[in-house]
Amino acid sequence: MLLAVDVGNTQTHVGAFDGAELLADWRLSTRGYLTADELALAMVGSLRFRGLDADAVDAAIVSTVVPRLGPEYVRLCERHLGAECLLVGPSVKTGMPIRIDNPRELGSDRLVNAVAAFDRFGGACLSVDFGTSINIDAVSADGEYLGGAIGPGLEVSIEALAGRTAKLPRIEIAAPEVAIGRGTQGALQSGFAYGFAGLVDGIVQRMLTEVGGDAAVIATGGMATSIGPLCESVDEIDSYLTLTGLRLIHERN
């Protein structure tokens, strides 16, 4: 069994694979100060809760945007799972040439999404990741990573607005019934949902012009199911895109 671990700034998404089959997935809060032993408690407990045996794990692959946690996950696999751990980084084979100024500064999660998107469509494509930040990444028709855009995420923006205003509450993002909100909550939902959908559509349209041709657009991330359907430019939504990309990269190594 392969464990695919996507460590984001806010949440960690974990998937357990048997070959290409995703047996189970779960999300944990990302805490950058945790040790390998503490991570092991959460990981083994999550496996058992889903009826999976930790002893069946023979390999793991980890992508992390929190550098300190990378070595901790490696130690977790070695000490508690007896499994090899592949940490996505510059030395890992992805099968995708990186055509940006400094490939070493590219976030591993963005590259993983690009790998999965190109594997899905087999041609020019864009991946949109609704996470702590909104990442939009472009892949050429030849399977080259071209670069992308990074914008503020919804949760971060909501917290910032609530923290800087006296009367505006923190809201749960949901697709509004109408664009013209009849109250404060409706107005906020409209502003955030349609506002971020417009942000994505605006950037995607500009990228499509630069990529050339009819590139497919796929959305993923924690808020993809809420905002993705409101985006006119998004063709597909796949909440497991990053986990799939991790599995593919593990197979290539």
What does this 3D model show about the protein?
With 253 residues, the chain is α/β, with parallel strands linked by helices. 38% of the residues lie in helices and 24% in strands. The protein folds into 2 domains: 2-87, ATPase, nucleotide binding domain (Nucleotidyltransferase, domain 5, 2-Layer Sandwich), CATH 3.30.420.40; 103-239, ATPase, nucleotide binding domain (Nucleotidyltransferase, domain 5, 2-Layer Sandwich), CATH 3.30.420. Strands 3-2-1-4-5 form a 5-stranded mixed beta sheet, sandwiched between helices. A 5-stranded mixed beta sheet has the order 8-7-6-9-10, sandwiched between helices. Strand 7 (133-139) and strand 8 form a beta hairpin. The model has no long low-confidence stretch (mean pLDDT 92).
Please describe the structure with a list of short key phrases separated by commas or semicolons.
Nucleotidyltransferase, domain 5, alpha/beta, five-stranded mixed beta sheet, 253 residues, 24% strand, 2 domains
